[in-house]
Design goal:
Elements (H helix, E strand, L loop, with lengths): L2 H8 L2 H25 L2 E3 L4 E4 L3 H7 L2 H32 L6 H9 L6 H11 L6 H8 L12 H29 L3 H9 L4 H29 L3 H6 L11 H11 L3 H30 L1
Antiparallel strand pairs: 1-2
Length: about 290
């Protein structure tokens, strides 16, 4: 690298420096600070005594940690494959060249711009027993049962999963839709000449072209689902009986209700490690398939 090129590169430093400083202060520094907190008996007010790995030992024998981790994993299992398939189906529908194309795209994406407080309020309003919209519809079609959506474990999970899918599927649909529009039209025209049916076109042209973005959506959805918190807190509060309480809610309660930030930081790093391992597995499997 000659001196002139080096001087040109140095000109970018004043523009990069503000972001770099902000990134270090608000991202990198908190990572190491949180690791330090996990090694101490740390309260909301001040740092207490050094406890070493005691917080990590307590975590491995804490039944509430394992139960909330399972609840979170169950949420991931229920939502991730459903989200990917639903987003793909809606993207295919929104990609059809018809008069309703704009309506489909707008209506599918619209819920994703709402805040979590709004969608949670709508869910609670619609799922109320006796007067809620969902129960009213059930009564109108001849179903006399009165489901208590928030009081039954299974129904609570159904409610959370359905609300989350309705709220977040629009973003993933847009990713699939963008990838669909990048598929060369010549591939479909050539397949029609060869006599391929619509199903054969989807199987041999559309689906292979969507695999790369499908992997990205799968990874993003797993990471997002493991970080579920707000909608469960607002809709069910983690109930009934802690049946839907996710790990992040437990971390929040330990840190800000029980005033034990050290143990909360420990569980946060456990979640971080889980997400890191899942991300590495996903990326390595993707690279091995590409080879």
């Amino acid at each position: 690298m000659n001196k002139k090129s080096w001087i040109q590169d140095m000109k970018a430093i004043p523009f990069l420096l503000p972001f770099f400083v902000a990134y270090m202060i608000f991202t990198i520094l908190p990572i190491f600070k949180g690791l330090e907190m996990s090694l101490y008996d740390w309260t909301l007010v001040r740092k207490m005594e050094f406890v070493g790995l005691d917080n990590y030992k307590d975590m491995f024998v804490d039944p509430h940690f394992w139960r909330t981790l399972w609840n979170t994993t169950l949420f991931v299992i229920l939502t991730t494959p459903t989200m990917v398939l639903l987003a793909l189906g809606l993207a295919l529908l929104a990609n059809i060249n018809s008069k309703l194309q704009t309506f489909f795209r707008g209506s599918f994406f619209l819920p994703s711009i709402l805040s979590v407080s709004v969608i949670s309020f709508l869910a609670i309003f619609m799922l109320q027993p006796y007067s809620g919209f969902v129960n009213t519809v059930l009564h109108s079609i001849g179903i006399d049962a009165e489901p208590f959506w928030m009081a039954d474990k299974t129904l609570a999970w159904v409610s959370i999963v359905v609300v989350t899918l309705w709220w977040t599927v629009g973003f993933n649909m847009v990713l699939f839709l963008a990838s669909l529009q990048d598929i060369p039209e010549q591939l479909y025209e050539a397949s029609e000449i060869d006599g391929a049916t619509r199903w054969e076109q989807f199987r041999h042209i559309t689906l292979p072209q969507l695999i790369p973005i499908g992997r990205v959506i799968l990874l993003l959805q797993i990471l997002a689902s493991y970080k579920v918190f707000a909608q469960i807190l607002l809709i069910t509060g983690g109930g009934p009986g802690g049946a839907t309480r996710p790990l992040i809610q437990y971390i929040y309660e330990v840190g800000f209700t029980q005033n034990n930030l050290g143990y909360a930081a420990t569980m946060s790093y456990a979640l971080f490690f889980i997400l890191l391992v899942l991300s590495i597995i996903q990326l390595r499997s993707q690279r091995s398939e590409e080879r």
